[in-house]
C-alpha cells in the first residue's frame, strides 16, 4: 500500500492555513499545519516531508530564519521549500528567498492552480524517491543473503530477482513520464534537477540489478546506491 506524502504548511495566520488546505486537498496527501517557525522545526524532527510551504512574514522566527535552520540540518536540508509572501520588496527580497534555500518564491494572492501544480511536482518526485529507496533496500537484502551465486540458488532467488526487476521497471516508467511532463512545461529548475538526479539513481540501480543476472558477474561488483 502506497503511503501518502506529507506536506508541511507554515503560516502564523489560521485563515491562510485553511486556504492552503482547501487548495491542496485535491492532491489527496497528508497536510500538516505549523503556526510558527519553531513549530515547523519541531515537526521536521520526527516526520519526513515532500515539500514545505513557508510564509515569509511571521512573528518571532520569520520564514528566512526558519529556512536557514532547515537547510543546516542533515535530515531536512534537501526538502524543497516554497516561500509564500504577501509583500514584494523587489528583486533583493526575492533573491534573499532563493539564497535561503527556496526552490520557488510566490507572492500572494497566488493562482491556486499554479500553486497546486508546483506542489504536485515535488510530491511526485518525493514518491519516486521513496520507491527507489525501497527497491535499493530489497536489493541490498538479496545481496546480503544471496548465498554462493550472484543472487543465490534456486527458484526463490530467481523469483525475487524477477519481482525486483518488474517493480523497478514500474518506477522507471513513472519517472520517465514525469521527466517528459517537466520538459513540456516551464518547470522550476530545481524540479528538473531533482528529476535528473532521480533518473541517474534509477540507472545505477538497473545496472546493479542486471549484474545480478546469472552469468553476468558477481554480487560484489554491484555498485552501492546512495
Automatic annotation (TrEMBL):
Transmembrane portions of the chain: none
Alphabetical UniProt keywords: Coiled coil, Phosphoprotein
Record PTM 4-aspartylphosphate, positions in chain: 55
Coiled coil ranges: 161-188
Pfam family, one: Response_reg
Record bears the keyword Phosphoprotein: yes
UniProt domain Response regulatory: residue ranges: 6-123
Protein name in the entry: Two-component system response regulator
Source species: Streptomyces kebangsaanensis
